[in-house]
Amino acid sequence: MQANRLRVAIKNLADALRETEAALEELQAESDPLAAHIFIARRQFRKAPDTKGGKRSEIAARLRWQTAYELGYRGSLAEWERLMGAAPKR
User: What three-state secondary structure class fits 1?
Assistant: First the structure.
């Protein structure tokens, strides 16, 4: 009786491991749209040429912040600019 009980427990454990591995693979396959947006926005922000007054980078930061907000980012525009690597305002 003990050997049969052990065999059933091992089978249940193996099934649970397969299910867990499948769920993990599914999670890894899905990408986070907010994280991807932040990554791309930071790269574009650093590469963008700017005018002397800095208006172009302000407008670009605001537009990207609005998109990030729609994707779930809940920080302020100032926090977004810090995240993008903008120089502090004087």
Answer: coil
Contact between 31 and 15 (Cβ < 8 Å): no
3-class DSSP string for the chain: CHHHHHHHHHHHHHHHHHHHHHHHHHHHHCCCHHHHHHHHHHHHHHHCCCCCCCHHHHHHHHHHHHHHHHHCCCCCHHHHHHHHCCCCCC
pTM greater than 0.70? no
User: Please, are residues 37 and 74 in contact by the beta-carbon 8 Å criterion?
Assistant: no
Give 47-89 pLDDT, tens digit per residue: 877 777 777 778 888 899 999 999 999 999 889 888 888 766 6
Q: Do 70 and 34 form a contact (C-beta atoms < 8 A)?
A: no
